[in-house]
User: Fold this.
Amino acid sequence: MGGKKDVNPLPPTQETIREGQVAFSHYCISCHGLDGQNTGVPFADQVSPPVPMLASPEVQGYTDGQLRSVIANGIFPSGMPASKELLSDEEIWSIVTYIRHLPPKGSLVDPGVYSDEEVDRLKQKK
Ligand code: HEC
Assistant:
């Protein structure tokens, strides 16, 4: 993982966190949940490797630059996609800031992207 020493140029203000949350809610919640902790994501622990809790000590142990690099480049060949074609540098850094300030697990609503039928179907696949 590259980018270890890259420094987040954005100030960690409420505004940056909010921007990051908005970008996160567009591109990341279908797998990570609105709270970054898989809330409401029916397959999160059924894919291999599973979708990690972004509030976990492992993920929080990365530097900001490493998080940026993971988000920009994705992780091949797992399910974590690269975002650098979709997001500006500023959006990615604001997401890094959001990941540092995640709300408590389960405190936000489900992403609402999966219907009950889809959840049933995904569970049956198991
Ligand atoms: C299609 C599902 C999917 C989407 C969309 C997705 N991720 Fe992930 N993400 C994953 C999976 C699966 C992993 C675990 C990958 C692994 O461990 O190899 C992961 C891992 C991560 C990690 C931890 C990396 C590590 O090395 O431990 C971070 C941070 C992360 N994602 C952030 C994001 C952000 C931010 C977005 C939106 C820009 C996003 N993800 C979009 C599925 C997704």
